Amino acid sequence: MPFAQLADFKMHYEELGTGVPLIAVHGWLGTARTDLGHVLDWLATRYHVYGVTLRGYGESRPPQRDFPDDFYERDASDLLSFMDALNIEQAHVFGYSDGGEVALIAAGQQPTRFLSVATVGSVGYFGAGMRPVAQRNAPATFLENDPELMARHGITNAKQFVGQWIRAIVHMIDAGGDVSVRYAPQMTMPILMMLGEEDRLNPREYGEKFIEKLPHHNGTLAMFACGHPIHDQQTEAFRKVYGEFLRG
Questions:
Q1: How many other CB atoms are there within 10 angstroms of residue 89's CB atom?
Q2: Strand, helix or coil at 86?
Q3: Does residue 243 sit in helix, strand or coil?
Q4: Strand, coil or helix: what is 28?
Q5: What is the pLDDT of residue 216?
Q6: Do residues 230 and 121 touch, judged by C-beta distance below 8 A?
Q7: Which residues does residue 61 pair with via DSSP β-bridges, in sequence order?
């Protein structure tokens, strides 16, 4: 699998298919393959797909993931640098969970480079109701009990890893909750936001706050009868909705 040499790390990515570029971004504690494997393979039947693994995760080097207050902004900058490194002038972008937040920020910062944006389990706004849901990830027992997951990401201290992520999320909530809403008015590309009815971390009303800020009624919020990973729990419905969005 190839690597893109960026300023201070090597980004691992998968490259599949041919045609118009489409970049896929995974979520927290994921990689391109583990979070989005079947999505990459499906999209590669029609697009030139790049499945990126964000800094510090999986095969990207060095494996030292951390979560400063601006980690979403940092990841968005990495995504844009990846496009520069591979001479990708324009692309569709799909993001899952944290990767969706990254995709929205990147598209808001450089809107002319993105043909469309689609997200699963991402809302662009973190309201107060998200605080207790995020905090329930502590203590980090779920991670400590998964040595394979810890090894995949080179994690040596599960409590520190999870604690950093929670602290950064809570900081964003306390700062007003704006993850990417401030960029919405300049985002003119088609946007599809997909949320699960049972996703307590990303409720519908938070997604609506982002959609209503878009300038030309170019956003769609699609709800699914499932939890957070729509592409895994409602695969057929996900492919129908996202496929129709891309064809449109």
A1: 9
A2: coil
A3: helix
A4: coil
A5: 86
A6: yes
A7: 10
Cis-peptide into 139, omega within 30 deg: yes
From residue 172, alpha-carbon distances to 16, 175, 180, 212, 244 in Å are 35, 5, 11, 20, 33
Cβ partners under 8 Å of residue 43, min gap 6: 16, 17, 22, 24, 49, 94
Helix (H, G, I), strand (E, B) or coil at 195: strand
Q: Is 226 left (phi over 0), alpha (psi -120 to 50) or beta?
A: beta
Block residue for tokens 């008015």: 185
Predicted confidence band at 217 (pLDDT cuts at 50, 70, 90)?
A: confident
Q: Which residues contact 72 (CB under 8 A, 6 or more apart)?
A: 98, 101, 102, 105, 179, 180
Residue 206 to residue 123: CA distance in whole angstroms:
6
Residue 42 — pLDDT band, cuts 50, 70, 90?
Answer: very high
Mean pLDDT of 186-215: 95
In single-letter form, the type of residue at position 229 comes to P
List the chain domain ranges: 3-124+180-247
pLDDT, tens digit (0-9, with 9 covering 90-100), for 98-151: 999 999 999 999 999 999 999 999 999 999 999 999 999 999 999 999 999 999
Q: Could you read off the pLDDT of 68-98 as tens digits, one per residue?
A: 999 999 999 999 999 999 999 999 999 999 9
How much is the pLDDT for 1? 66
- Which CATH superfamily, name and number, covers 3-124+180-247? Alpha/Beta hydrolase fold, catalytic domain (3.40.50.1820)
Chain centre distance of CA 215? 22
